[in-house]
Structures are given as C-alpha cells and as structure tokens.
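Researcher: Let's continue the batch. This sequence belongs to Polyamine aminopropyltransferase, and it's 290 residues. Same format as the previous ones, please.
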Amino acid sequence: MTTTWWLTEADLPLGRSGVRLSVEVVETLHDERSRFGHIQVLDTVFHGRMLVIDGIIQTTERDEFVYHETLVLPAALRHGAPTSALIIGGGDGGALRQALRLRSLTRAVQVEIDDTVTRVCRQHLPSVSGGAFDDPRAELVFADGARLLAETSERFDLIVLDLTDPTPGGPAEPLFAADFLRVARAALNPGGVLAMQCGSVTVQPAEVAGQLRRGRAVFTHVDLHTAVVPGYQLSTFGFLVAGDRPRPAADSATFARRWGNVAGACEYVSPEMYAASLAAPPYLRRVLGI
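Model: Same format as before. Here are the structure tokens for Polyamine aminopropyltransferase:
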C-alpha cells in the first residue's frame, strides 16, 4: 500500500501572510539540487505530476495549459503575426509549445538558465513541452537570459518572460525590474510585444501591482490578463502584456483575423475568455491600482 504525504508550499515572495497550500503527494519522481535551486517532480492526487522548485509549484500536468495559453496567446494576438519569439525561462517547454502554434512563427529562441530543469521536465513531464524542443523552428540556449538580451543585437516580435517568482537574491529577481524591461523593450521589433507572469492576484497582489507599475513606466500600452490556475494556490493569476500599440477588441475583425494565426484547438483561451481575462472586479481594480 502506497503511503502518501503532504507538501506544504513555501512562502511566496511578496505573498500575503496567513495562508499556505498543501498538496497530497503519491510519489517523489525526482529530487535534485542544481546550481540554481532545489528541483522536484512529484506525483500528486489532485494535480498529477508537478514541477516544484525551492518548494514552490511551477507547473502541473492538470492545468499547465491554462497558464501557458494565457501567457503566450494574448501577446501573440496583440502583435498579429509574429515571426520571431524569444522565451526567457520556461524550462518546462510549455510556453515554447504555445508559441510554436503560431502559423506565422519561423523562429523561437528559448533561453533557460538551468539546464537541469529542462532535462528533468523532458524526462518526467514530456506532455508539457509536447515535442516543442524537437521542432526545427526552436533553438534552445542554456544561458543567463538577462545577460544574453543585454548583449544581443537581434530583435524579436515577441518576448515572453516565463520566470520563477522574484525571490530576493534568486536568478529571476533582476528580470522583474524596470531596468530589465527597458532592455527587453529595446530588443523588440516595431510593434513587438512583451508578455510575462506577474504573480497571484489573490495571494501576491503587491507583486502584481508593482509589476504593473514597472511595466507602465516602460511601455505605452500595458494590460493585465487574469486566469484561475489551480496549480498556483487555487487562485486567480496575473499576466502582463505590454507593447507600444493597443490591443484589438475581441469582437473586431482584426482580432478574428489574428485568431486565425493560432493553429489547433485551445483548451482555455477563446475569444470569449480573452475578453473575460481583461475584466477585473472593482475591489481588484482598487487593490491593484488599475
């Protein structure tokens, strides 16, 4: 008989106090410490297999599509027809998989600082990437994304920051700063769009509000999309989409034409959910300052 145990998630950076999430674990599939963090893959009752880094849930088999579709597709719809994409982080390959669904895309560069994450996810969570790493349009680079972006002369239509939480002193923290957002903006082609996760609206409202402020200090048009992602504290999660051109309305001909650039059926994002993801109730607008 298998004995289960409970993982209690570590405190989240800028998270509200007084609540923690516990998940029932069936089996530890992988446990390893890399140069950058403690990496685990756990088989759970509720979420299926999930990736945990430094005690914080990063992705789960059950609902990764909610996160990755909402992270990538609204930004692609804002642009229209991106041909090039840069993904910083996202070692599980889920963001890369969604970007490669864009019919217009000819090149996607993924820059992950920790090759251990990608190796472990390819072994234990292959459904998340769904073969994306083997797509001929994909280029996988293991390097410091902030340094690479600061040094490259290449320009991209779409930049996706699929980062871990901005833990003080952690590898992702500098990539949430306004200075880095300015570097990213300079690496965009005209009409280019940046997308990033910005934390749980429910549990980390200070992180979300701060990232919105930093984004608006750099970009002309910044939107907050939200989605309920069960793997992230069973909460409403925030996604920042920024550029220097406005987004199309969900009921416009422009949106319909751009939607046709997305190959295959979505499991979460639809024209209706795209529109709904931009709405926020009055109390959240007050809390987040939007």
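Researcher: Any comment?
Model: The radius of gyration is 18 Å.
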